[in-house]
Write the structure tokens for this entry.
Amino acid sequence: KLQFLYFIGTMAESGHVGAEAVVRVLLDCGIDVMFANPGTTEMGVVEALDTVPGMRAVLGLHENVVTGAADGYGRMTGRAAATLLHLGVGLSNGIANLHNARRAGTPILNIVGEMATWHRQADPLLAMDIESLAATVSTAVFTPCTPHDVSDHTAKCVSATQAFKAGGSRVATLVLPHDCAREVAGPLRIALPSSDSSDGLAMSPFEASLSIDEAMNDTFIASVVEKAIAILQSDGAGVCFFVGGQGLWEGNIQRAGRICAATGATLFCENAFSRVDRGEGTPPCHRLAYFPFDAKKELGKFKSIVFLGARVPAAMFGYEDGISQVVSGQTVINIDTHDVPGALEYLMRALKAESASWKSQTPAIKPPKGKLNAAKLCQCIAYAQPEDAIIVDESLTSGGSYWQASLGCKRFSQLTLTGGAIGQGPPLSVGVAVACPNRRVINFQADGSALYTTQALWTQAREKLNVTTVICNNSVYQILKIEQQKQNLSQTGSAAKSLTNLGNPAIDWVSLGRGYGVESVSVSTCEELLEHFSKALTKEGPYLIEARI
């Protein structure tokens, strides 16, 4: 339960137009970064960025870079960034990474330009049903009909990014008609969360929700929590504690670890997790297997599964084995709350687990030698990554052993592809680096996926972002080869070969990176990779390493 305070004030000066009202509301609500690819209908907002100081504007050369960057920013800060997109066509170009953001539970506020209200009836060439398109990824879509509605609808979008449930979208979209942006707006309406955290409060929002339920004679949430506590106390060894969202961030993942240490439960996270803070000082956490048969086998070892901040996992695709749900036959308890950190704190105290500790496992990481392959590439990155690094992992098949290889690393954060829409890694790295300028960002990146959004390299160069991109160049869509084999399909036909191969012509990654203004090299041995990796980490700005495996 999240409550918001609304207040209406008059403009400091007369004559503010709708576009300025949008920027003012965003800034007053704490949104001060905008990733943008504007067009004709959004130029009023661009002007407002100059007349209303305080917003950092970052240009992306493709809308899927813009939306992916906003996702990365939100995953690291917990706050929404804004995007500025040109009409329905711009939104459609960026919708793949908005889908990933929806699955990650990342707060994003899209501003999508629209034709002037009086011009829509003419059916201009760029006209689309923007609201229907936006609804596929958004928890809320608002379209002001007059300039006087603009500030109120912007405020409602901000509110929508902060109210969510596990597995639900935190993406909100403001469809801004051209005339509403450029004409004088009405009173400024600002939405501010009354309690976005537990700072200064006697109880967390989670505990407050239990108290509100009790006062309203609604015991549903309390009964779910009591059941989870009872199962963890009575049969902890038979319990999978499946945590997601902010429950896997620094501080919170330690609370989850103490709960498991005190009860004997096993901590799990999704395969496609949004962010896990890992490394030294964090508890053992099992990453669910990707393929449904393996995932179902893993979870089948437990009598009960307690979900907190995570959706109940399902198979990515329906194979001939008929597995759709990977959870089957167990007792399932789903604690559905927006305040996952508060819920973890509550459970930890209820289980008297505040002082519980886990057995740390920090295997020594040694540098591999010789010709690179996928496994050695994972070992090289784990060996060389600095403390407090952020690993943006879209390595896919090449990075299959990285989770295990990095168990002995110093503290770091790892982000993955959450919705299956490839081309996320380079844009995500942009947003992560904007959010955390003092941390080194390493984009561990599959070559085929990177080709969807290489324009992100230009933004990295322009903004001088400290991103080191390691391209896993196997010149093939290896995941499709695996899928062919898994589905007993022929791999010998001309189409089967041609549509999964990235050669002929070979991608020149060094020239491509340099063309975007990024220093780039190519390596084929562990020794070469480690040499250039070390160099990249001492330089300011982006660096690209093509790893031929």
Remarks:
- The chain has a mean pLDDT of 92.
- The first strand starts at residue 4 and ends at 9.
- The radius of gyration is 24 Å.
- Residues 438 and 478 are 34 Å apart (CA to CA).
